[in-house]
Amino acid sequence: MRLYSKRKTQILYAKKTQNFLQEEIYRLTGEFKKIKTREIWEYPESVRNHPLSIDLDLCTKQGFLGIYDTTITEVGFQTYLKRFLQEPIEDTNLHFQTLEIQNILKKNSYFAYHLLRKFLVPDAETNEKFPLTSIKTEDSFWKKRRFLKVFFPIWGVISPLYIVLGLLFDLPLIPLLLLINGILFVTYRNDSLKQWKEIKALASGASRFQKTFIYLAKNRKTTKQMIGRISSLGDSSELLISPLPHLILNLICLWDLWKIKSLEKWKQKFGSLWNELQIQILKTDSLLPLVNFGFLFPEASFGNVSTVGNLTAKSLVHPLLPKSSRVFNPLTKMEPGDLMIVTGSNMSGKTTYLRSIAMSLLLAGSGAPILGTEFEFPNFQIHTLIRSQDSMEDGVSFFYSEVRRLSSIIHNANDSEKIPVLFLDEILKGTNSKERFIATREILSVLREKRAIVFLTTHDLKLAEVPWAKRYHFTELEVDGQMDFDYKIRDGVSGSTNALKILKKEGIPIRNEEE
């Protein structure tokens, strides 16, 4: 049975590895639709409704957060999401240094891959996350039962001996002894169930993450002993499924107390090692999606933090574009207070360019490499307004929704330690062109005063007249009478439009095109 069980585990692990490798191939080739990712509603509400998630499509079926998610622990998954969204991580043990991912990738070419394989859980469903509990230092069970802690080892030995001898020699008081043990059992029953729950959780974690514990441990022999003993203790919890044998054992020898005592000894010997490795596992688990991104794309490079608040790159591209479709574009040096206005025809690549910069910032801020070269970024506070939504339930119009978002961005752009970096795509679309120009100009002026770096796309060429703006554009090419796009950024303001061409292509007649 042991050989069969071991063989079964090996086969499951091999199948899990095969599926993992297949998903890695899909990530490399850009076949993201073939990867089994989670639905939007399966993300925490705070994540799926986060402005960055909405504007950058992070939580869609083919969004970055799902495509590159390789976490297997509940805490690791939550930390990965917060780390990427630049949200604060409450547990100080899970804070990270910016060079940690870089150090993992530098160890050797296959270290990251082997690390990922050790984190595989053979019996896990797709996107399933598991708890990995820590050991509680306080011992509330014995704290309330100090006398019982001293008394029960003696009574727990005398009691079964007396029962055996009593049955053999017809001694009296056996019913009284069983009654005393039964009363004791009732007094600690509720608290002992909590102890058994902890034993189950620890044993389950030891079993699921056995390979990971051993792989990350410095002393593997001690770690194996730790896992073996808690797993053996966890096997004892199976008796709780059968209430009658469980009751009989407690009536005879106070069985629960012996197991709780064993748990206490295990904690005293291995508690600090367990907690140390548990934190290491959770922290590593939260980093692995970003490590894996760097492992899959060795051409990716790490950015450098600018001491003066500059944002620039020799080249960059959106990380979710397949290799065959990637067009790298430079990012001119943007200093605090700078504004870049990007104009261009429809579908030429304006919004994708903004998202490429924003995604590169999020990756670099998470300590991960970016698809680009010579990326320099400030200590930033990122804001996006690319996709606004109205709300019938709240009675909020599309325009008012944008205004509220802009107001929130302006008021939050006050952190003196961080440079606000804003990505605005066709803002204030819900009003007339005259008021939109005036409002946008004033908003940009306020943001300049706050030393924000602003990227703005627009079809309104009048906005490009803002005097302090850096002007760039994308355009379409005409090849054999058909529109073609090279997605290359160019200096200056766009001089072409293609809205009427697109309408005609889709069969909508334009009767007075010359006008």
From TrEMBL:
SMART domains attached to this UniProt entry: MUTSac (SM00534)
GO cellular component, as recorded: cytosol
Transmembrane segments: 147-165
Single GO biological process annotation from the record: mismatch repair
Superkingdom classification of source: Bacteria
Pfam family, one: MutS_V
Domain DNA mismatch repair proteins mutS family: 337-512
GO MF annotations in UniProt: ATP binding; ATP-dependent DNA damage sensor activity; mismatched DNA binding
InterPro entries membership: DNA_mismatch_repair_MutS_C, MutS, P-loop_NTPase
Keywords: ATP-binding, DNA-binding, Membrane, Nucleotide-binding, Transmembrane, Transmembrane helix
Range of residues in the leader sequence: none
Protein name per the record: DNA mismatch repair protein
Taxonomic path: Bacteria, Pseudomonadati, Spirochaetota, Spirochaetia, Leptospirales
